[in-house]
UniProtKB/TrEMBL annotation:
Positions of transmembrane segments: 54-74
One Pfam short name: Abhydrolase_1
Region Disordered: start-end pairs: 1-44, 396-428
Basic residues biased stretches: 8-19
Protein name (record): Alpha/beta hydrolase
Organism per entry: Embleya scabrispora
GO molecular function: hydrolase activity
InterPro entries associated with the record: AB_hydrolase_1, AB_hydrolase_fold
Coiled-coil regions, chain positions: none
Length: 428
């Protein structure tokens, strides 16, 4: 995972760092220390004992095991309710996070689930960038990337099934392979021609790997660039989650069954999540970010995670335990690839990004210091600069320039994608 001695969970982090300092990583890579933000406190809460226990238990397992907190940043537990209400009012007044909107679309997946999507930019733009969000988030998690790139590229955003504004899928479709099939459908509807760059965070990165597994022919012809951020190609069940190995093994062993049980008691658990907000905050603060962030960003991410029902969290969790797409990575060898990791990410440790880099020697690996699982939100300047570099390389590299045919400049037309059912996501 990288990094030296870990800071204490409740202490201010890295007070000795000079803002904006740059320096070499211990293995020679140049890394940037982003500017620190304002510390974020949080409040106390109360509720009925039974609901509180269910909420704490559900939150702890969801956060530790699957990244239910992969999308959640929370206030610290030192300030009262009045501060929290003031922060929420400030967020509403700013009307910034979550308000960047594009042309809306409803896309029907192969099993009838309606996927909500939005498009920014000109349909005739030379490159379409498709952004795939992670577990318990929605398309608005790309706020900083959307603001930075929307005037330069055609951008396609969509909510994964059972997330955000998209329709609810059947429990048995809560798999990485179904997400890959959904991405293929989105491409067919909203980007049937022309070169593509795919960006994926966490579960969104796994979605891109599933697409590469199902349709490797797209990579190098239609897909000219890929960014895999805070994600894993497999062996997630070995992640220690920042706790002793024995405890991590226990979490991985009991979490699927426990989450299924909690999912069947969704109403009780949702009430418990509200009553136990402060303890939930304590868990999620550790697993979402590795530096202090602005309180408006805290409330924004809190709202995204709060919109994910406990039964959706429960249905998707087994997908991470069984996820294994290492064999699909060679399909990316022919495209420009960027791999981004947070040095302090406990959900998808940097070692998993290093494993992806090992499978793709030509990929660029960026390990961001003082960053947890939400690197695109936590350090947007660093991520956006890396994405601009990826896009520049993908569209101008020898043998990879965007041609009039929409292919990779090889003098031949590339066939549109997405007009057939493709491979069944269950392999049948």
């Amino acid at each position: 995972m990288g990094g030296g001695d870990r800071h204490h969970l409740l202490r201010d982090r890295h007070p000795h760092r000079r803002p904006g300092a740059q320096g070499p990583h211990r293995d020679g890579r140049v890394v940037t220390t982003p500017l620190p933000a304002t510390p974020v406190p949080a409040a106390s809460g109360a509720g009925r004992a039974l609901g509180r226990r269910a909420g704490i238990l559900g939150a702890a397992v969801g956060v530790l095991a699957a990244g239910a907190a992969a999308g959640v940043a929370i206030e610290r537990m030192t300030v009262g309710r009045a501060f929290r209400r003031r922060t929420e009012a400030q967020l509403d007044a700013l009307a910034e996070f979550g308000t960047l909107r594009g042309e809306p679309h409803l896309i029907t997946a192969d099993d009838g689930v309606e996927l909500y999507a939005e498009v920014d930019g000109d349909r005739d733009a030379p490159v379409t960038v498709v952004l795939c969000h992670g577990y318990c988030l929605d398309m608005d998690c790309w706020h900083y990337q959307r603001a930075a790139l929307r005037d330069e590229y055609r951008l396609v955003f969509y909510d994964q099934r059972s997330h955000g504004r998209s329709g609810r899928g059947a429990p048995e479709t809560s798999t990485i392979d179904h997400l890959g099939a959904d991405l293929y459908t989105v491409l067919g509807e909203l980007a049937p021609e022309g070169p593509l760059v795919l960006l994926g965070h966490s579960m969104g990165g796994m979605t891109i790997m599933a697409l590469a597994d199902q349709h490797p022919e797209l990579f190098g012809e239609r897909v000219i660039g890929v960014a895999l951020m805070n994600t894993s190609a497999g062996r997630w069940a070995t992640v220690t989650l920042g706790i002793p190995a024995a405890g991590a093994r226990l979490v991985h062993r009991i979490a699927p069954g426990l989450l299924r049980t909690l999912g069947r008691r969704a109403a009780l658990v949702e009430a418990g999540r509200r009553a136990a907000r402060d303890l939930v905050y304590l868990f999620t603060e550790r697993y979402a970010f590795d530096s202090e962030v602005d309180p408006t960003l805290v409330r924004f991410t809190d709202r995204m995670i709060s919109g994910t029902p406990i039964d959706v969290i429960a249905e998707f969790f087994p997908a991470f335990e069984t996820h294994d797409k290492l064999a699909a990575l060679p399909a990316l060898e022919s495209v420009e690839t960027l791999v981004v990791a947070g040095e302090g990410d406990l959900i998808a440790p940097a070692s998993h990004s290093e494993a992806i880099k090992e499978a793709l020697p030509g990929a660029e690996l960026l390990i961001v210091p003082d960053s947890g699982h939400l690197t695109p939100l936590e350090h947007p300047e660093v991520v956006n600069a890396a994405l601009r570099g990826l896009l520049a390389r993908a569209t101008s590299a020898p043998g990879g320039r965007v041609g009039k045919s929409g292919g990779r400049g090889r003098g031949e037309s590339s066939a549109p994608v997405g007009f057939d059912a493709g491979r069944d996501p269950d392999g049948e």
